C-alpha cells in the first residue's frame, strides 16, 4: 500500500508494511486522508541520521493519533507494535516517534543513514521510501543551525493515498479540500519554503564577479589550511615582496639588488639556491621597505632582459615567514612585522640574535658559501666587463660545440652514404653473377636440345621410305572411299528426283529442264571441253 508525500524538496513514494504494522499503517493512512500532514515542516534534520516531521505546531511536542481525533484526548496516543521486530538498517525507512512509555502519536521520521541499531527498541518502523531518493538527498543536505532546525523551511505540501485497504472508522469525516494553514503554522521565523534566496540581487556585474572570486579564494584558503599549507585561513602574503623567476644561473644577488634598487630601498634580496651544490634555482625574492616600491617594480620589470634572459616578476604568494602561534592565537612574522605606513620602523630594530643569525646579508653570502661553490672559469675585474667577457666566452664555446656537432653529423652522414653505396655495389655484383649463371645454364640447355633434335632428324631419314609408302597407301584408300561416297550420293539424288517426278508431272518437267540446262552449261564450260578433247 503506497502513499505519495509531496514536499518542497521533491516527491517521496512510500510503501507501508501493512502485515507487520497494521495499526500504525491505519493511523498513518487515516491521518493522510484527513490532511493532517499538510503544511507540516521538517522541524529536525540531522545529516546522515534522520529528518523528523508530523507535528502541526512545528515544535516537536505536538501531534495526536487518528484515535485522539475520533475518541478524544484519552485516546491521543496509542501503544506501539513491537512484533515482529523491524530494524533501522538503511536510509529511507519511515518510523513513528515514541513520545514516551512506548506510545505513538502522529510524528514520524525518515532515516538518512545506515545501521541505526540504537533506534530499534524505541521507535516503530512501518514503511520505506521506494521512489524519490533524490528528494531525500536534498533534505539531507539542508543547512541547519546548532539545534538541527533548517534555516529554510522544508514542508509537506500534500499527501496522496494510492491504495487504502482499511475501512474508515465510524465518525471519521473526510474533508473535501485541504484545510488552510494557520498563521502560527506558517510563522516559523525561518526563510519561507517558497522564498527564492538570491545573494546577487541588486548588485552590479563587477560586484557579483568580485563576490564570486572572494568565495572561491576563501574556499581555496580553507582547503590549504586543512592540508597544512596555510597556518590560517586569514593568513595573507606580504604586500612588499616580489617574486622573480626565469633568471640566468649566472645572475647573483648583488646584480638583482643593483637593478631593483632604483625603485626604492631593498630590505632583503635573495636568490634561492640548491642546499648541496649551492647552484642557483633561477628564482628569487626581493623585499622592499614599502608596498609602493614593490608595486612600481612589478609594473616596470616584468619581461625585462637580464643576462640574456627574459625574467618574470609577480607579487610573492609565499607565507613561509608567517608562523602559526596556535588555534585562535593568530600568526606572527618571523624576523619582521607587517608594513605600517604610519611608522618608519618597518624592520624590527631589536631582533633576537637567533633570528639575526638565521638571516645572512647578500655581502656575507659569498664568504660563507665560497668553499661549497664550484670554481668559476673567469675572474671578473669589473661587474659589467666580466659579464660581457663571460658572454663572449660562452658564445665562442657554443659556436665551437655547434661546429663540432655539425662536423660529427657530417662524418656520420658520410659513413652512412659509403655504407649504403658499398651495400648497393655488393647487391649489383650478386645480381650480375646470378644473371650470368642463368644465361650459361640456358645456353647449355639449348645445346642439349639441339643435339637431341639433330639425332631425331637422322633417325627420321632412315625411316623416311617406310613412312612415304604408308602415306601413299593412305591417300589411295582415301580417294577410293571418297569416290564411293560420291557415287552413292548421286544414286540417292537420282532416285529422289524420280520419286518427285512421279508425284508431280509439271514439277518433274521443270526439274528436267533445269537439269538439262545444267548439263548444257557443264558441257559448254572450258574444263569439260578440255576433257572431251
From TrEMBL:
InterPro entries: CRIP, Cyclophilin-like_dom_sf, Cyclophilin-type_PPIase_dom, Cyclophilin_PPIL4, Nucleotide-bd_a/b_plait_sf, RBD_domain_sf, RRM_dom. GO terms for molecular function: peptidyl-prolyl cis-trans isomerase activity; RNA binding. GO terms for cellular component: nucleus. Its main location: nucleus. Residues 333-533 are annotated as: Disordered. It catalyses: [protein]-peptidylproline (omega=180) = [protein]-peptidylproline (omega=0). Residues 10-161 form the PPIase cyclophilin-type domain. It is found in: Nucleus. The keyword Iron does not apply. SMART domains: RRM (SM00360). Residues 240-318 form the RRM domain. Residues 518-533 have a biased composition (Basic residues). It holds the Pfam family RRM_1. Keywords: Isomerase, Nucleus, RNA-binding, Rotamase. Residues 340-367, 374-484, 492-516 have a biased composition (Basic and acidic residues). Its EC number is 5.2.1.8. Belongs to the cyclophilin-type PPIase family. PPIL4 subfamily. PPIases accelerate the folding of proteins. It catalyzes the cis-trans isomerization of proline imidic peptide bonds in oligopeptides. This is Peptidyl-prolyl cis-trans isomerase. It comes from Daphnia sinensis. The gene is EOG090X0971.
